[in-house]
């Protein structure tokens, strides 16, 4: 049996886990701080919070920079690790997938359970990441193969670059559209742009219709909302909006880009600050692959018309980023390791 640890930040880790689990034979044990999703193929262990009341300056959360999160004397952390150990002690778990947690990866390996780490872009050569990547039987990289000069050869040799994948892979897409429709697609991590900036961008491009999907933007905009701007709020299934968009504006998170790639839509990508420079590293890879328009910050109102036109002219060839079979390829790696380790 395979156990799969799902990180709770944002929604991308969960979507990735669901995509892979659907391609695995038999039950999969889900482990996360998040509640069990509908249609998870197996049992689910919900872990307690391990961050409430933590003083990061006093509680030595990194254990002297050897880990990422292990606050001293925290009851939630103790209970989490005990629950994971309870799943591992039976001996039925043949493989654990860590997406992502150094601590869970180490705990599983200390139980003698082989580990697969799901990699993330960015600087991952700190001591904690090195430990997890070193002990892993394999590393799943959900992006296409590209130069990684800071990675040791041992990591590269055991990494499966499966390409980006999402819950929307395999859905039929509409033909390329000449519609001037913008979709601003932000995720559970938050919308790092103000309402005033959205209003200004829409007002400066009256020839484009703007759809906003995601959490509310910050602040209030002066004056009335432009007639070509519509807020949809949180959308559980943004596929219809994606499929009819002429250009998608999004951040450089792995899941958001995988969903844009599945829809094969032109994109404007604005990387957000994340630990280990994750989104900036992804943006550099997009530039290297000549995919989409990467903007370092939210453009000024008078820049938007040119930015959108440039993105639309780049086209929708995301096949180099996402082949459409990444989840199946990742599942094949896990299945093989679970059978032969």
Portion of residues in helices?
25-40%
* Assigned CATH architecture of the largest domain: 3-Layer(aba) Sandwich
- Count of spatially separate domains: 2
Secondary-structure-based class equals alpha/beta
- Rough outline: globular
Looking at CATH, the homologous superfamily of the largest domain is Glycogen Phosphorylase B
Strand order of the largest sheet: 3-2-1-4-5-6-7
Using the CA coordinates, give the radius of gyration. 21 Å
The main β sheet shows up as: 7 strands, parallel
Number of helices: 11
The share of residues in extended strands comes to 15-25%
List low-pLDDT spans: none
Number of strands: 13
Mean pLDDT, nearest integer?
A: 94
What does this 3D model show about the protein?
The protein is of the alpha/beta class. It folds into two domains: 2-165 and 325-340, Glycogen Phosphorylase B (Rossmann fold); 181-314, Glycogen Phosphorylase B (Rossmann fold, 3-Layer(aba) Sandwich). 33% of the residues lie in helices and 16% in strands. The chain has eleven helices and 13 strands. The protein has helices spanning 12-21, 75-88, 102-110, 127-135, 153-157, 195-204, 239-244, 254-263, 278-289, 304-314, 326-340, and strands at residues 2-6, 28-32, 44-46, 95-99, 115-118, 138-141, 159-161, 181-185, 209-213, 229-233, 247-250, 267-269, 293-294. Strands 3-2-1-4-5-6-7 form a seven-stranded parallel sheet, sandwiched between helices. A six-stranded parallel sheet has the order 10-9-8-11-12-13, with helices on both faces. Strand 8 (181-185), helix 6 and strand 9 (209-213) form a beta-alpha-beta unit. Helix 1 (12-21) crosses helix 11 (326-340) and helix 3 (102-110) crosses helix 4 (127-135). The longest helix has 15 residues, at 326-340.
